[in-house]
Write a structure and sequence with these properties.
This protein has one domain. It is built from no helices and 5 strands. The chain is mainly β. The mean pLDDT is 93. It is elongated, with a radius of gyration of 19 Å. Strands 1, 2, 3, 4 and 5 form a 5-stranded antiparallel beta sheet that branches.
Length: 84
């Protein structure tokens, strides 16, 4: 049995969306070095993907509804850490 959800388009139209399992994943860290030398490491983690039936973008590509989370790691330089 297909897993389905309802999603609402930008014009308020309700669409059916069918669950599409992720076959392969390559989740890499993005790193940002801040002015204070702190390194922020972030990555997007996909949890579920649904293809929206009957909804395509201006180029004819299918539209997907994505559920995800963000993992963040903060790596400050030693001189910014609080001492206990």
């Amino acid at each position: 049995m297909d897993r389905k959800i309802k999603v609402t388009g930008p014009d308020g139209t309700s669409y059916d969306a069918i669950y599409v399992p992720v076959r392969e994943s390559h989740e890499v860290w993005n790193e940002y070095v801040l002015e204070d030398r702190t390194v922020l490491r972030m990555k997007l983690v996909l949890t579920e993907v649904y293809r929206v039936e009957g909804w395509h973008d201006n180029e004819g590509n299918p539209v997907y509804h994505v559920k995800s989370g963000t993992v963040t790691a903060v790596l400050p330089p030693e001189d910014l850490k609080r001492t206990t």
